[in-house]
TrEMBL record:
One of its GO terms (biological process) is methylation. This is Class I SAM-dependent methyltransferase. GO terms for molecular function: S-adenosylmethionine-dependent methyltransferase activity. Residues 54-149 form the Methyltransferase type domain. The keyword Glycoprotein does not apply.
Length: 217
C-alpha cells in the first residue's frame, strides 16, 4: 500500500515536482469535468479587457483560455509553474496560445512590483512552503487594489473525502484561519465560498509598499 503524502511533503518543492511530473501527461483526463468550474471562478475574479493576470501554479493551463477571453487580445496572461512536465502538457493541449508559459517558483517570481492587475491560483495554497510569504510574493507583483482568486474545483470537505481523511481544525483554508493569513500576506478578504462544488476565495491587495529589494528584471 502506498504511503500517504504528508502535509510537509506537499509543501516541499522537490516533492511537488516529482509528484506532478509523473502525472502531468494524464492530469487533464483525471478531471475532465472541471472546465465549467474554472470558467466560473475566472468570471468571478472580475477581470477587465486589457488587464494583466498571472495564473500562479498554472499546471496544465486549464484556466488560461478563460483568462485570455476575460482580458482580451490586448491583455497580458502569464502562466507560471514549478514543474516542466506540467507546462509541457499545457503546450500539448495548445494552451500556450492563450498566454505566456513561465517555468518559475511562484514564491520568487521574475516579475516587477505592481506589474499585474490580478492573480488566479488553483490548488496552490497547500503547496506553498510558507503560506504568508507566498501570499506576500503574490501581493508584491499586483498593483494596490488588484485582485486574487484562490480556487479549487471542489470544496474542502469534498477534497478531504477524496483523499480519505476528515477536514482538520488546523486547515489553513478554513475562513477563520485564512483571513488573518491573507492580511499578513498583504491581502484583504472580500468573499469566501466553500461548497462541495467549489472553493473560491476572492481578495484585494492592500495599499502598502512592496518589500525592499523585490524588483525583478
Amino acid at each position: 500500500m502506498a504511503q500517504e503524502t504528508t502535509k510537509d511533503q506537499w509543501r516541499d518543492p522537490a516533492h511537488v515536482q516529482e509528484f506532478f511530473s509523473v502525472r502531468a501527461r494524464g492530469w487533464d483526463a483525471r478531471f475532465p469535468d472541471d472546465g465549467p468550474a474554472y470558467d466560473a471562478a475566472v468570471a468571478d475574479l472580475g477581470l477587465r479587457r486589457g488587464d494583466a493576470v498571472l495564473d500562479a501554479g498554472c499546471g496544465t493551463g486549464r484556466a488560461l483560455p478563460a483568462l485570455r477571453a476575460a482580458v482580451g487580445p490586448q491583455g497580458v496572461v502569464v502562466g507560471a509553474d514549478l514543474t516542466p512536465a506540467m507546462l509541457e502538457a499545457a503546450v500539448r493541449a495548445g494552451r500556450q496560445r492563450s498566454g505566456r508559459l513561465l517555468l518559475a517558483d511562484v514564491t520568487r517570481l521574475p516579475l516587477r512590483d505592481g506589474s499585474l492587475d490580478a492573480v488566479f491560483a488553483a490548488g496552490l495554497v497547500s503547496h506553498l512552503p510558507d503560506l504568508v510569504e507566498g501570499l506576500r510574493e503574490l501581493a508584491r507583483v499586483v498593483r494596490p487594489g488588484g485582485r486574487l482568486a484562490l480556487f479549487h474545483p471542489v470544496g474542502r470537505a469534498a477534497l478531504a473525502a477524496r483523499h480519505g481523511r476528515p477536514v482538520t481544525p488546523d486547515d489553513e483554508r478554513a475562513e477563520p484561519s485564512l483571513r488573518p493569513l491573507l492580511a499578513r500576506g498583504g491581502w484583504r478578504l472580500d468573499s469566501y465560498t466553500d461548497e462541495d462544488t467549489r472553493f473560491l476565495v476572492l481578495a484585494s491587495r492592500a495599499d502598502h509598499p512592496a518589500r525592499n529589494g523585490a524588483i525583478r528584471s
